[in-house]
């Protein structure tokens, strides 16, 4: 038996499983990825919480799993992420100078802004103030 082929098969299966898991976390836990075209319509109705992030940002990567888990705890609040790299105009509109920054919206109006990484409990507490 050629064990190098077995290694590649296991490697492919693990990578595919990780990709599928990450995809379904975003889909089923309700974290939407926004861009400048979707942003205003997403934040204009009800309560929404938006994570301003960048792919290269270490604290953003640390906070991402907590944000995803917190999104699964609220049916009436919508969660989203927006990458500041391709959406500088939106980041500038809300004064986002550091990331991660979490902004809470209610019917299009900013209710709270928090700069810096949050853990799951802190995100839940922030959302509960405005839901």
In short:
This protein is of the alpha/beta class. It has helices spanning 3-29, 36-43, 58-71, 88-93, 120-130, and strands at residues 31-34, 47-53, 77-83, 101-106, 109-115. It has a 5-stranded mixed sheet.
Write a structural description.
A 5-stranded mixed beta sheet has the order 1-3-2-4-5. The protein is globular, with a radius of gyration of 17 Å. Helix 3 packs across helix 5 (120-130). The protein has 5 helices and 5 strands, in the order H-E-H-E-H-E-H-E-E-H. It has one domain: Glutaredoxin, CATH 3.40.30.10. Helix 3 links the parallel strand 2 (47-53) and strand 3. It has helices at residues 3-29, 36-43, 58-71, 88-93, 120-130, and strands at residues 31-34, 47-53, 77-83, 101-106, 109-115. With 131 residues, it is an alpha/beta fold. Mean pLDDT is 85; it is low at 17-21 and 23-28.
């Amino acid at each position: 038996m050629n064990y190098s082929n077995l290694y590649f098969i296991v490697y492919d299966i693990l990578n595919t499983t990780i990709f599928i898991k990450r995809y379904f976390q975003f889909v089923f836990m309700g974290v939407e990825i926004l861009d400048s075209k979707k942003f205003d319509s997403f934040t204009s109705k009800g309560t929404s919480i938006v994570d301003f992030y960048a792919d290269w940002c270490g604290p953003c990567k640390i906070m991402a799993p907590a944000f995803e888990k917190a999104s699964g705890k609220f049916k009436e609040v919508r969660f989203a992420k927006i990458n500041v790299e391709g959406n500088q105009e939106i980041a500038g509109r809300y004064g986002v100078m550091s990331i991660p920054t979490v902004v809470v919206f209610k019917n299009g109006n900013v209710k709270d802004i928090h700069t810096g990484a949050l853990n799951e409990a802190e995100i839940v507490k922030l959302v509960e103030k405005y839901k």
